[in-house]
Amino acid sequence: MAPHEHYDHVLHEIFVDLTIIGVIFLILTVYLLFAYKRKNAGDVGKQPKLSTQAMLGWLIIPSALFLADDLFLFAKAWDLHDNYRKVPKDAYEIKVTGQTWSWSYEYPNGVTTTNELVVPQGQPVLLRMTSNDVIHSHYMNKFRVTEDVVPGRVTYEWFMPNELGESVVTCREYCGMLHSGMYGTVKVVSPADFESWMAAQASAAAPAAEQPTAAAQPAAPATATTL
Amino acid sequence: MAQPKTVKEWVFSCDHKILGIWYLIGSIAAFAVAGLMAMLIRIELGSLGPTLTEDPNVYNLWLTMHGAVMILGFQIPALLGFFANWAVPIMIGAKDMAFPRVNALSVWLFWSGVLLALSNYVIPDSFNGMWTGYPPYSESEMAGNTALYTMIVVVLGMSSVFGAVNLACTVAFMRAKGMGWFQMNVLTWAVFTSNIIQLIFIPVLAASVLLLTLDKYLGFGFYDPTKGGDVLLYQNLFWFYSHPAVYVILLPFLGVCFEIVATFSRNQIFNYKVLIWAIIAFIPVGGDVWIHHVFVAGMPNWLRQLQSFTTLLISIPFGLMIMSLVGTFYKGSIEFRTPLHWVIGVLFMILIGGLTGIPNALASIDYGLSDSYAIMSHFHYVMAMSGTMAIFGGVYYYLPKLTGRYYNEVMGKISCWLFFIGMNVTMAPLYLIGLDGMSRRYYDYQQFPQFEATQHLATYGVYIAAAGILIMLVSWIHCAVAGAKAPANPWGSKSLEFTHTEVIPGPGNFLEPPVLPAGWTPYNYDKA
Ligand code: HEM
Ligand SMILES: [Cu+2]
Ligand SMILES: [Cu+2]
Questions:
Q1: Could you tell me if B343 and B260 are in contact, meaning their C-beta atoms sit under 8 angstroms apart?
Q2: Which of A18, A58, A66 has the CB atom closest to B316's CB atom?
Q3: pTM given for the model
Q4: ipTM
Q5: Are A181 and B444 within 8 A, CB to CB?
Q6: How far apart are the C-alpha atoms of B85 and B63, rounded to whole Å?
């Protein structure tokens, strides 16, 4: 399963789980409020003092239940985490550079684009990312994946574009005046269309010898990436 | 006993109750400023494109001020300034704080911090780096006056540290004869624990912002990768304090709720001892989990997983606390007065907020939610709105002791439910568009035109909430000048601030130092 489909699946289960807890809690609270409404002005509460056993029971049983639910959700999320962070071996690698306020993409053959990420359908894509100035965060709405783009570090994220179509990529870390204007599109096209798009890009780029994005990469070492 | 009469007596007082009232006035003023910012923010976002301002940096200033002032100027001072200062010394039977003059210094520092923050509106290069102030943005020219930001954080931090030392010493050494540790009010425990958290973590916050200033103005480069620094060092230092800071807010506001629930159910606290240990557990567990704020910032994968798990563990002490709170209704005798209405609002808000926090704790789910409106809405539910409702409920609870008069129940309840409805109308839809991809800290959302209708709806919510707040302020003033006279113990509480003081406690708090009989607790309603 592609990480984003897996994501929607797990999130759905978590929401079912949370709704159950929430509803139980709500019913209990509302019941207590109605059941113990004050009847006469002088009444006082009559809650019995808990015995040591009862006290420990009310500590251990709920804690165990909470812990069990935590572990249950954690286990679900663990699989998903592996899916997000273990990059398929055949992933197509694209370099991403964030700067105020646009995204640059550099393909393996040196072709670069701005605010437009075009990828072939059915091909896992690995993004290796860094920033030229302040921190940005690369978020692809359809693919449910965010990773910060940090000066002096190289971070990564991957996604599986298995449906044709366009979706949006935005910046999610506050990066100054036009933070909300820092967005572009992710286009998933058929492999054949991708070939012809790439050929057109390469021939358009050929006369211009320089690759400004590559030259602007910071020199600091990549510390964060362990693939 | 004599209340201060002249302005001079009010201003230069060292009495913990007067200082508490100064905190209250300052924090309400700060709430008004930050609330006004919230309205501007909401109106701006209510429709696509520029609405109130053409300049995104003006919007960014509003947002920076809203976040910083709500937390540093409103919630922390209201809880650890007003409630802690005013109520805790009386609750433990002390005649004042351990160091009354230091206490006055804390208030003066707090007011200085608020004034410094307000100066952002008038200086030309106001700071717009958000309340988190992340470098390298905050080290760039674009961010404006970072030194001012640092100054505000350090001044308010000093105020908090002095206050925390003072309160912790007061609780530790000045309890009435016969009051053991496990006979203290829940609010006292919550404040005491918060003080310990503050003393451990605030210095780290101060360090993080001071290094920022050294970096920006003197070129040191702690956070600058081109000089061998690391931008994530700041985030780790910052959240090392600022995550525990949410418990510094959470514990006292729940403490206030416990007092109100116990009093208006005339009941003992359910499972008191376990509750106290749960509160104490927040110190280690709360201190450990800050990495969840930097899940997507390039942390190693194993650390993301590990911290997902430790973050989930918070659910245990938190769950135990909520169980004690709700359990206190069991076999109680519940009277539905205004303060209790606010607490019922808190229970709902914190239920939604607590549950929506669980997805955020899981790193893999955070990949879709990080820095989205879902996060924004979650923390407004769990901290901003619950905390605010608890604070206002608590102010209503103590109004008769502050003014000697009753507030008007009808106005109190209407203000509560307008605020509650308004905030839900704002935050619930925003949660949903957050799940759909709406990001935080956006001046506009051209890339998400489908969210406009929801954003528009959310803006109506803030008008409703604002109407509630206006009625509340009117009811407070009405109470102070024209409320019906109240007796010393208007709610029939068993806690010392009600049983052993005059209608309005005067200097020294008690006519005679209280001496407590064996087995006394602040919640022993079943004993005559
Ligand atoms: C009274 C009604 C309130 C409304 C309508 C409101 C509204 C908002 C909105 C819409 C945002 C996010 C804007 C964005 O990220 O694009 C925001 C941010 C925030 N709010 Fe509130 N808020 C309210 C009360 C509070 C309170 C009581 C607190 C107290 C803790 C608070 C703390 C914050 C913080 C810390 C932020 C984040 C600022 C940042 O991103 O740096 N808010 N608020
Ligand atoms: Cu950006
Ligand atoms: Cu940005």
A1: yes
A2: A66
A3: 0.93
A4: 0.90
A5: yes
A6: 30
